[in-house]
Amino acid sequence: MNRKESKGTIDHAALENGTSVSMDFEKLRKVSACQELVVPVIVQDAVSKQVLILAYANEKALRHTLESGLATFWSTSRNELWVKGKTSGDELNIVEVRVNCEQNSLLYLVTMAGKGSCHVKDAKGQTRFGCYYRRIGKGGLEMV
Predict the structure, then answer these.
(1) Residue ranges of domains in the chain, CATH in brackets
(2) What is the pLDDT of residues 118-130, one digit of tens each?
(3) 60, CA 20 to 30 Å: which among 4, 31, 35, 89?
């Protein structure tokens, strides 16, 4: 279950569409190194209640979300504001923003303006509905 990297590069096609489990157990360390104060954001379809994305927001991203009505995050890898769908057209319209009991995570309830919310496309080239499209089975990852 270890992520395999060769000389600092990752085979994104295998990672995003493959059947091998390759968890990034370093993710929170990378998030903490982004030099922004962030909280996790769960994004959920307001109608189906399916979980679509896990992302992060800083104060600027939360403010932009509340003012614009579009799901906005802080990209911890690019260190910049990320308005979901700005380039792809797959915007996520905010229905409601919730905060957990300890006020250290957010839940965005959204409706989709496009066909999906994930940046990964399926075998037909269609945007995936959400980022959680595989489950861990006995033989590795299986498409749901």
Answers:
(1) 36-135 (3.10.20.810)
(2) 889 888 988 999 9
(3) 89
SS3 readout for 43-106: EEECCCCCEEEEEEECHHHHHHHHHHCECEEEECCCCEEEECCCCCCCCEEEEEEEECCCCCCE
Q: How many helices (H) and strands (E) does the chain have?
A: 3, 8
pTM of the model: 0.87
Count CB atoms within 10 A of the CB of residue 45: 18
Report the C-alpha gap between 115 and 45 in whole angstroms. Answer: 12
Q: Are 40 and 108 in contact (CB under 8 A)?
A: no
Distance CA 35, CA 75 (A): 11
pLDDT in tens, 103-117: 999 999 999 998 889
